[in-house]
Structure formats: C-alpha cells, structure tokens
C-alpha cells in the first residue's frame, strides 16, 4: 500500500491498485488517461499490462501493446502521467512526413 505523499510508484515489490493509481493521478489526469485509452482501444486490438519496466527510473506504469507490438508506456505521477513511445525506423519515416502538419511545439520535441 502506498501513502498519499508519493510522487510515483517506485517500489517494485508493492503493486499499486487501480484506486491508488486514480488517487495519484487525480481526477483531471485520470480523465485524460481514460481518453487516451479510449483512443487506443478504438484504434488497436489493445493489450494493457501493469509493469515495472525500467528499474527505479520510472516506476510502475501501463504497457500498451497491439498484438506483439509495443505502442507506449504510461507512467503515473502525482497529478499527471508521462507517455513514452518507441519509434522504429519505418515509423520514423512516416513521422517525418507528418511533422509539417503538427503544431510548432510538437515539431521541437
């Protein structure tokens, strides 16, 4: 069980519950995560797994996959979450073609 003062779920031996995840994210971020999940569900044959993938760097988060292909990780934080994506060579070529359609801040990233 996690206390309400944690910033992330960093203890590999303590698996956070759905309630704890919701409490950490807060209502606004939880709603944003729900919208992201809805989009992913509508677009892919989505698999969601609770994982502790990168040691003590990120803590617990959801791994979203389509079949055997990783889509992204979502790491929980107090009042927010971080999304990490892996872009392969083929996807990177497609991304470069789409950059012109994106807002300036996105292009900088």
Layout of helices and strands:
Layout: H1 18-43, E1 46-51, E2 61-66, E3 69-77, E4 80-85, H2 89-98, H3 104-108
Antiparallel strand pairs: 1-2, 2-3, 3-4
Top keywords for this entry?
3 helices; 4 strands; globular; 4-stranded antiparallel beta sheet
The total count of strands amounts to 4
Number of helices: 3
Distance between the termini: 36 Å
Overall mean confidence score, pLDDT: 89
The Cα radius of gyration reads 15 Å
* Secondary-structure content class: alpha+beta
Beta content comes to 15-25%
Runs in which pLDDT lies below 50 for 5 or more consecutive residues are: none
Number of domains: 1
Query: What global shape is seen?
Result: globular
What string gives the helices and strands in order?
HEEEEHH
Helix content: 25-40%
Q: Main β-sheet: number of strands, strand sense, barrel status?
A: 4 strands, antiparallel
Strand order of the largest sheet: 1-2-3-4
Describe the structure.
With 109 residues, the protein is an alpha+beta fold. The protein has one domain. It has 3 helices and 4 strands, in the order H-E-E-E-E-H-H. It has helices at residues 18-43, 89-98, 104-108; strands at residues 46-51, 61-66, 69-77, 80-85. Strands 1-2-3-4 form a 4-stranded antiparallel beta sheet, with helices on one face. The longest helix has 26 residues, at 18-43. It starts with 17 loop residues before the first helix and ends with a helix.
